[in-house]
Amino acid sequence: DIHLDHLKNDQAIIDFIDRCKDDSFDGYLITGDISNGVKIVEHLSMLEAGWQKQIMFCLGNHDFWHSSFSNVRRRMGELQNLSPLIKYVTNCNYVPVSTETAIVGHDGWYDGLNGDAKGSKFLMQDWLQIQEYAEITRGAQQFEDINKNSIIELSQKLASDAVKHVHKSIKEAVRYHKHIVVLTHVPPWEEAHRHQGLPGNSHASPWFTSKMMGQLLESAANSYKNVQFTVLCGHSHGHFRDQIKPNLTCHVGHADYVNPVIQDVYSF
Asked: What is the DSSP string of 35-83?
């Protein structure tokens, strides 16, 4: 989660781009929260111009703030059509990066299935900042007035759409590749949700995990035991790395709003 909109000015963004630039890199993987719905195209264009390498990415919840899912995703499609270096995985079946490895993914979304969604007192700013959620919360004077059932229903639809896309992409990619890298924003397992070094609690977990995605990925790992799955994600800002199954690993990147850094370097 690089949150370029939180850096103080364009020069700070350019400095970040320069710090991450390495001629030995073939491309960059980003798992969302790049910017916000107003600045996302501008900031992706700056990354493209600075790195001049393929950028494979999904979007995070912050990338839709001050806009809508439909508008931001439409603009991502337009941007991808303009540049061979921009690969928005939500719009791709899969992206081959070597004879062994393919990238698949989707923005993903939290599904409210872990923790206590209905009893949670956690207020996600998404519900105020993203148009489709704001239509639900409009008019609510206090937290208790929010229609939580409608929030959960929309969240689960978004999460389900993501799962369907990743499922289809994996089925196609495993025909030709033995290593599948999955980019998604929201951690797919409850244990992968870490905050300030501690496990997430039942009030936050509904909005920081996607149980649906975790179940899909475990099913894929069970079905394709000769395929290695590497899942990369963010959202919770807490570092996590673990082997979920013998052929399924998950890496969640640590994030600092004003100090974005490269989390890891991979060789595929």
From this structure: S-TTTHHHHHHHHHHHH-SEEEEE--GGGGTTB-HHHHHHHHHHHHHH-
- Residue 232's nearest CA partner among 145, 103, 43 is 103
Mean pLDDT of 21-43: 96
Question: Taking a C-beta distance cutoff of 8 angstroms, is the pair 109, 210 a contact?
Answer: yes
Classify burial at 229, counting beta carbons within 10 Å of its beta carbon; exposed 0-12, middle 13-18, buried 19 or more: buried
pLDDT digits (tens, 9 = 90+) for 233-264: 999 999 999 999 999 999 999 999 999 999 99
The CB-based long-range contact list for 121-130 (8 Å cut-off, 24+ gap) reads 121/203, 122/203, 122/204, 122/206, 122/207, 124/61, 124/207, 125/65, 126/61, 126/64, 126/65, 127/151, 129/64, 129/65, 129/66, 130/37, 130/61, 130/64, 130/65, 130/67, 130/68, 130/69
3-state SS of 149-202 is HHHHHHHHHHHHHHHHHHHHHHHHHCCCCCEEEEECCCCCCHHHCEECCEECCC
What are the tens digits of pLDDT across the range 205-216?
A: 999 999 999 999
Does residue 89 contact residue 103 with C-beta atoms inside 8 Å? yes
Distance CA(258)–CA(193), nearest Å, equals 21
- Comparing CA positions, the residue from 250, 245, 224 lying closest to residue 31 is 250
